Amino acid sequence: MEGTCLIQEPQKKKKLNEEEDINEKSKCLGDLPEEVLRHILSFLPTKDAVRTSVLSKSWEYRWASIPNLDFCRELLKLSSPAKRRLLMNFVERVLCLRGSYAIKRFNLSCDVLRDASRVNTWISAAVRHNVQELDISLDNFKGEFFLPYCLFTCKTLTSLHLYMPIILKLPTAICFSNLKTLTIESVTFSDEYLIEQLFYGMPVLEKLCLHDCSWGSLKVVHLSVPKLHSLRISEFERPNSSYGDGCQIMIFAFGLKEFNYTGELFSDYCLYKSFSLEKAEISMISYDTSAQIAHRVCKLLTGLSNVKLLLLSDEVVEALRNAGERLSHLPMFNNLTDLVFFEDWAIDLGCVGLLRILQNSPCLKTMKFFEGIRLWENDDWMLDPLPPCFLSHLKWIEVCDFDGESEELSAIKILLKNAIVLDEIVIFCSERLAGNLEKQENLYKQLIEIPKGSQNCKIVLQ
Hints:
This protein is of the alpha/beta class and 462 residues long. It has a domain at 332-462. The protein has helices spanning 2-30, 34-41, 46-51, 81-96, 116-128, 192-200, 291-302, 314-319, 352-359, 388-392, 406-418, 431-434, 437-448, and strands at 68-71, 105-113, 133-141, 159-163, 181-185, 207-211, 220-224, 230-235, 248-252, 258-263, 268-272, 279-284, 309-313, 338-342, 347-348, 366-369, 373-374, 396-402, 424-429, 458-461. The strands form three sheets. The protein has a 15-stranded parallel sheet. It has a three-stranded parallel sheet with strand order 7-9-11. The longest helix is centred in the N-terminal third of the chain and has 29 residues, at 2-30. The protein is elongated and about 80 Å long. The model is unreliable at 1-9 and 12-16 (pLDDT under 50).
């Protein structure tokens, strides 16, 4: 018995020490300033922050002041009507107990169903609490849905993300005086005048993202966003065929610095007076090589004439084959210094679209071919007329995914022969070639024997 006591006594003492340590830490945590505690709670999911109310009397309503509220779809998912009502009551309780505390970030993702009035009440509550960042993702509507009017005149809002696969109903008066970031997803626009008013009411908007939005049956829309710095547009879901043959969206963004388009060009996008454009990327996800698509590519490129860095997918270059007479009207890219080609396939050096872009880029300094480059023409093919940049500015070329096939070597020969001021060409072997050192050595011998227009050009095979 005596021996047993000697074994158990340290364990009891250890347990007491652990409890004292926990109490001490809890006491220390409670002694922190309220602002610090709110900051700590802001890192917790909303439902976990609410659970801290059981810690002690002083913690009962501390969660009500947290600056970030996140009511995600997992919390409000439709599992059963009873559970849905319980969870929606929970959201309203959280909002009711906030008092005068401001909301910094409010995230709401749920199925609306027939609870449109309650959902709007939550959004209105966020606006009343001077919300700064608002993320709204709504789905499964039963009947018409209108966002509350107060949202469109919120003075504190700086960031808005809106996902609503429904026709967006807009009020006649809109003023987002401090909104700098806007993302709109899966929304259908139906009124040209109200769309223009929407963007006119964003005088300081800097970043805009339009993802899978539909322009309905509209024919022409003017978007004027003078302070816009970044514009991203993506289109993957084809609009209803009854909407017609696409809309012409004319974008006036004088301060635009970065533009990104990804999709199938269901509509015409025309950029005007983007004098400060630094980077533009166009990625076509389409096998449509019709003349209409080619014309839309030309229009888009025309609006990017002042860009410095241009990234194009292989399908953009291929689409230009069918541009016909419009290709001759492509603008000069006098500011373009860096040109990058990417996506799935090697670029054909003989493609008329590529040649036109090169001929219209007199100050081009670097070119990069992520998926390689080939020449499918005959061996006697010549680069004619010779792009001016080959004679004065083109200093560096990078070619990736190189297999050493004859079509690739033909393209490399043309580049080396005609780029008379080239300093370096870097060629990265493909994965298929990477393990074959003997073939790499043979290829390198072939490369260094190719006649070069620039005697100072360095050939690097990686």
